[in-house]
Amino acid sequence: MDPGQSAVLPTVREALRTLSSSEDGDCILSTLGSLKRYLGGAESPAPPGEQEEFARRHFSDVLRCLVGRLSPGWLELLPDGQLEDLWASFFLEGPADQAFLVLMESIEGAALSSWGREGRSVLIPPFLPQNYFPLLGEEIVRVLQALVDSLRGGWDCSVSFLSQVLGKACVHGRQKEILGVLVPRLTALTRANCLWQRVCWRLVECVPDRAMEALLTGLVEAALGPEVLSRLLGNLVMKSKKAQFVMTRKILFLQYRYSTPMLQSLLGYLAMDSQRRPLLIQVLKELLETWGSSSAIRHASLPQQCYVSKAVLICLAHLGEAELRDSREDLLASLMAGVKSRLDSSLPAVRRLGMTVAEVASTRIHPEGPPLRFQYEEDELSRELLALAAPPPAADSPSEHGLPVVCSWVTGRPTGLCCFLSDDELVPYDMSGDRELKSGKTPAYVRDCVEALTSSEDWERWEAALRALEGLIIRSPAAAREVSVELAKVLLHLEEKTSVVGFEGLRQRALVAVVVTDPVAEYLTSQFYALNFSLRQRMDILDVLTLAAQELSRPGRLPKTPQCGSPSPASQPSSTQASAWRAVVEERIRSKTRRFTQVMPRGSGSQLPVPSLHVHWILCFRPLVTFDLLGEDQLVLGRLVHTLGALMYLAVNTTVAVAMGKALLEFVWTLRFHGDAYVRRGLLSAVSSILLSVPAERLLADLPDELLEAQPWLADVAEQDPDEDCRVLAVKALLLLEKLKGTLLPLSSS
């Protein structure tokens, strides 16, 4: 053994003995100072041979001793942090690999637990993810700065190791922590500095493919705009197939959780360089193909559709007319297919989405053609979509580009063309001759209202009759019963002849009053499938039935007792006509409907007649000459299902509830896999209505098999249905089902 080695060993042994036991701060300080000589950091360093021997054989033992003594009380043996600074210098100035391994051993080993909470807090916080990865980001910037300085000095350098470290951190889900430090620093350093830009490009190019997706999604999220993203990535998407797949496919088509600013950064990045712009055109084609796919519309949730719609409009905002011209036919075909499918949707939000995108996209894709216009009520989403696209080119005049197409959404189909001439020809109406309605025009009897609404050419009297009708029906129920079917027919076919404020509400409330006063629900249900009715009228029938059922089920409502005695001859000029109508209606009902008889709510305290509920089950499963519930008229089917669920819920505490529940559950089971989300929502709501309205003991006694089959279906919907509302409704139904079982479990055990 050489003299240098024999001199180091006794010194280290004595120092370790002192450090392990002494509580004298000055003694500990002197001992550490003597050991510091072997690190070369003292004023009189040890000979190189002794330094090498210390580093190779004894340094790790000294570090373990220092870690073992670590505690706040031990570090405070000397004032002003002298001992803490000297302690830290051994880890910072000695061999880094040994220091790192000792720290890792200490964190994981039993020695860590012996320090107590205070001792652990001294060592661990720098290594917690929220602290460690920002620190790692700072160190990467520091190394990159040294690398840039070396390049300026003419040295060849490699960033491969840094790329692997960065990719490893991102793969472990720490993009936010490390890029939150790295991106702002690199954003400032790459501004007007080509050398720093090339270093950044090389840094991301060398990231392994397995980490590329995690890195790019983090960068797109952290970068403030497409300019920054372009400086950091360069033409990475043209050099790396993996990066191109992530940027043009994965983020846009397979995920939809990213924000609108992130989409703008990504697509703006593709648009900022002439080499990348062909990718943007290809992305637009694929986005519109997805947007126009009827299958995607049926199976994608509304947030997914909004995400793709935003991406389409952002692409169009960056592309010029010349770039779109070669692909115009394909783009328009996809756009029109998507518009048609969305206008056929049962969900108002989906229809509004289609109309908004169609207006903007058609103008950008084919500016020479007639501008497409829809009538819809703007909401926050439609305003956001309109703001994403750049303003269309100003047109000289409508006559040069054809007539604007104006569509309104009433029954789900465009209603035609409207020609707008110049503003100079829009002459304001002369309202000087207008006058208020005279009180003498207001009818005093229900029959007078019927006459005014059917034959009067006096529009003031017509409006007065409509406004007075609801009150007259409520005040004179006997008179209303005499002409109830005729009155329901008139109101159902009534069209607005003048600009009456609140026309639809007045008409609907009058119809509800008629149904509540006299059970003409039979007539309305028969007319639901009759000829010569629009989809709007059929949905009006469903709304009226629901509102009337709500009114009839209201607690404490007094029954309406028919007046005794024969009415005067003057009061019944159309009684024969009403009887004839009743005969026709009853015959149609018997031949086409399944009927639940009149019921009395139990425990209501009054003999309140509830209108018979007629549900045309069999006709729902085949197309009729009037409309096709299982085809293009699925909006009406959705409203029908929601109405049946509402009626089921309102039938609580009635003797017919069990029979209704069983029949409705059979109906739900037949349509449970329907492709339209609005219909599925109604079916799931109907299941909840059954569970709430039918007594628990009757459910398990009369419907055990149906409930047993419903449970796995509901569980499947709750997990896999693409529509979020359907998943929520399925979970609620499952909870009701579990609660039902829990309620009856004590009864069965007893």
UniProtKB/TrEMBL annotation:
InterPro entries: ARM-type_fold, TEL2_C_sf, TEL2_Regulation, TELO2_ARM, Telomere_length_regulation_dom. Keywords: Cytoplasm. Residues 566-579 have a biased composition (Low complexity). It holds the Pfam family Telomere_reg-2. Gene3D superfamilies: Telomere length regulation protein 2, C-terminal domain. GO terms for cellular component: cytosol. The keyword Cytoplasm applies. It is found in: Cytoplasm. Residues 556-579 are annotated as: Disordered. Residues 443-549 form the Telomere length regulation protein conserved domain. GO terms for biological process: 'de novo' cotranslational protein folding. Its main location: cytoplasm. GO terms for molecular function: Hsp90 protein binding; telomeric DNA binding. Residues 273-370 form the TELO2 ARM repeat domain. PANTHER family: TELOMERE LENGTH REGULATION PROTEIN TEL2 FAMILY MEMBER (PTHR15830), TELOMERE LENGTH REGULATION PROTEIN TEL2 HOMOLOG (PTHR15830:SF10). Belongs to the TEL2 family. This is Telomere length regulation protein TEL2 homolog. The lineage of its organism: Eukaryota, Metazoa, Chordata, Craniata, Vertebrata. The gene is TELO2.
